[in-house]
Amino acid sequence: MQLDLLKRLNAARKSRQAAVVVSDLASDEVRLILEGEPVAGPLGDEVGKAFRSGKAGTVEVEGKNLFLNVHLPPPRIVVIGAVHISQALARMAPVAGYDLTIIDPRTAFATEERFEGVELIADWPEDVLKDRPLDAYTALAAVTHDPKIDDFPLSEALRSGCFYVGALGSRKTHAKRVERLKALGRSEAEIARISAPIGLDIGAASPAEIALATLAQIVQAFRRREFVTAG
């Protein structure tokens, strides 16, 4: 791989930006495509599939055999709220391949005893997200039911383009949340991305079932996310 291409790839990985290295198996020609760059024709379709699956492989495009090597940032879940749902989700997420962080300023809930082995930050989301910003490879789940804790990270998740944004609460609760998020500067189109009530509709009742429904919805959102690859 050419040195300048390798530098670009390393820079993309450092900034948590997805990339595909396209190698022509006949000529050894190599091309780097970053997520969001327009790619015309059939190659754009194949690159989109590669970004979505995260799997490397050989494809035939317009008579050429190409090897697509995909570099995706590790997907992660940020949970706002150290509650029972979070405890269950913290056990399930690693099995599905997701790193998970829980943020909650309420030290009575955010304890090592309740979340042993889990990355737990007992601080306000406003302060945490300054140094650990959200991005397109982050799913955010807000489950405290407390607007003082949930609203800011929800607004940041929409602004940052998180691939999934979910919030616990009834439709009546969400209607009030919508007005607060508008006051924070979020548009109706952005707010419409929030999954509320959170999780796939499986009739979940217990915290573990809600966590399962939420994780399933996160995986669905990650695998169905859209890419700009045609141009």
From TrEMBL:
Domain (XdhC Rossmann) ranges: 77-218
InterPro entries the record matches: MoCofactor_Util/Proc, XdhC_Rossmann_dom
Pfam families (UniProt xref): XdhC_C
Regions that span the bilayer: none
Name recorded for this polypeptide: XdhC family protein
Taxonomic source organism: Neorhizobium turbinariae
